[in-house]
TrEMBL record:
Protein name, as recorded: Ribosome-recycling factor
NCBIfam families: frr (TIGR00496)
Gene: frr
Keyword Transmembrane: no
Protein's organism: Pelomonas baiyunensis
Entries under PANTHER family matching the protein: MITOCHONDRIAL RIBOSOME RECYCLING FACTOR PSEUDO 1 (PTHR20982:SF3), RIBOSOME RECYCLING FACTOR (PTHR20982)
Keywords from the UniProt entry: Cytoplasm, Protein biosynthesis
Highest taxon, organism lineage: Bacteria
């Protein structure tokens, strides 16, 4: 393994941490309707739990309403029950085959709580990135100890990994502040 491999490996893992953070933040609702909010809700379908998107068409009716159109007649009540029992705090209403899911407006207190959740998710992502930095630095030091690279190469590798870490943490901060602004916007 070379220092370039160490850097490439660390970069790939850090990118996965950022993607994981984005996925986590997508689940946090902001008051605006978003079809991805229902992605984590599972519904009972022939004895197994499947995501709603696999048994119904999930679209937006307007900025504050999600529409769920089941593909099979008998799935409507099951989908409605699954959405109601999820921890999202949503109250779906059936209109024939169509299920409307209005997004309740967020109170100021709830917005502050959500920004705390966002900050915690961001901090968790930063910790993961710092752990990846530590692992990459340990690999470089091991290469130096095994005399596979020189001290200059090791120092250069540590500097490169630090620059990469700084760049990824700045990206995480940017993502967090954008999500906080989205939550606090009325």
């Amino acid at each position: 393994m070379s220092t370039a491999d160490i850097k490439k490996n660390a970069e790939a893992k850090m990118a996965k941490s950022v993607e994981s953070l984005k996925g986590e933040l997508q689940k946090i609702r902001t008051g605006r309707a978003h079809p991805g909010i229902l992605d984590q809700v599972s519904v009972e379908y022939y004895g197994s739990a499947v995501p709603i998107s696999q048994v119904a068409n999930v679209t937006l009716l307007d900025a504050r309403t999600i529409s769920v159109q089941p593909w099979e007649k008998g799935m409507g009540p099951k989908i409605e029950k699954a959405i109601r029992e999820s921890d999202l705090g949503l109250n779906p209403a059936a209109q024939g085959d169509l299920i409307r899911v209005p997004m309740p407006p967020l109170t100021e207190e709830r917005r502050r709580d959500l920004t705390k959740v966002v900050r915690n998710a961001g901090e968790d992502a930063k910790v993961a990135v710092r752990n990846l930095r530590r692992d990459a630095n340990e690999q470089a030091k091991k290469l130096l100890k095994d005399k596979e690279i020189g001290e200059d190469d090791e120092r250069r590798s540590l500097d490169d990994v630090q620059k990469l870490t700084d760049r990824v943490i700045a990206e995480i901060d940017k993502i967090i502040s954008a999500k906080e602004a989205e939550i606090m916007a009325v």
